[in-house]
Automatic annotation (TrEMBL):
<dbReference type="InterPro" id="IPR036179">
    <property type="entry name" value="Ig-like_dom_sf"/>
</dbReference>
<feature type="domain" description="Ig-like">
    <location>
        <begin position="38"/>
        <end position="121"/>
    </location>
</feature>
<feature type="region of interest" description="Disordered">
    <location>
        <begin position="76"/>
        <end position="104"/>
    </location>
</feature>
<dbReference type="InterPro" id="IPR013783">
    <property type="entry name" value="Ig-like_fold"/>
</dbReference>
<feature type="compositionally biased region" description="Basic and acidic residues">
    <location>
        <begin position="87"/>
        <end position="96"/>
    </location>
</feature>
<dbReference type="InterPro" id="IPR003599">
    <property type="entry name" value="Ig_sub"/>
</dbReference>
<protein>
    <submittedName>
        <fullName>FCRL1 protein</fullName>
    </submittedName>
</protein>
<dbReference type="InterPro" id="IPR007110">
    <property type="entry name" value="Ig-like_dom"/>
</dbReference>
Length: 131
């Protein structure tokens, strides 16, 4: 069922018994409810959110159920506007300034569920001359 299918319904048709006749049932109300969004899971590749300077990090957001369409606004600690609204956030050519907490939210238009924040750590190469 889809949300727009809520409404009043009846059935009608020919009833054959002693006298055949066209008959209609009483109307019944049908209400389709949204499935509430369950907990949101956030995963990272490479796992743990630790990534080498210059590499790529892919964050993925998932829910077990929900009625669509769903949007996945991604947020970075201290940033106002969403970074993206797809289930996957790809950060290419990671720099030192990408170290932060990232979080995805899932919205079905009526309700919003949030993931736990994920700490992303950019690992710089160790230089024996500078320590």
């Amino acid at each position: 069922l889809q949300l727009h299918r809520s409404g009043r319904y009846r059935c009608e048709g020919w009833v054959r018994n002693m006298v055949s006749r066209w008959s209609m049932s009483k109307k019944v109300s049908v209400t389709v409810h949204r499935v509430p969004l369950p907990g949101v899971s956030l995963s990272a590749q490479p796992p743990g959110g630790q990534v080498a300077l210059g590499d790529c990090l892919v964050l993925s957001c998932a829910v077990t159920t929900g009625t669509g369409p769903l949007s996945f606004p991604w947020h970075r600690e201290g940033s106002g506007a969403p970074l993206d609204t797809s289930p996957h956030l790809e950060l290419r050519h990671i720099g030192d300034n990408d170290s932060s907490q990232y979080q995805c939210r899932v919205s079905d238009g009526d309700s919003v569920a949030e993931s736990d924040p994920l700490n992303v750590t950019v690992l710089s190469e160790w230089d024996p001359w500078t320590g």
